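Subject: sequence -> structure tokens, single chain

Hey, anyone have a minute? Need the predicted structure for the following. Not urgent.
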Amino acid sequence: MRILFKTGIIEILKALLEKEKMYRGELEELTGKKGSSLNEKLNELKAQGLIEWEVEDKFQGKKWYWLTEKGRKVAEYLVKIKEVMEEG
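Reply:
Had a minute. Here:
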């Protein structure tokens, strides 16, 4: 549960919710997270069963990332909660 409150996690989940399947570079652009910071978050999300990935080109290291069904549900709730909290 703690993972959901880490900086950048909601942005990653929201980005994947909006676009379904993304390359790492797209996630970097949309979230502002790069390198080991993004890697750590993606690994944690995968360990929690919220995302999956598939290597498209192992020589160039290209991977597709997407939400699992569990991840989609969590992302939808988090986006709603964030919107309510920002209403002021």
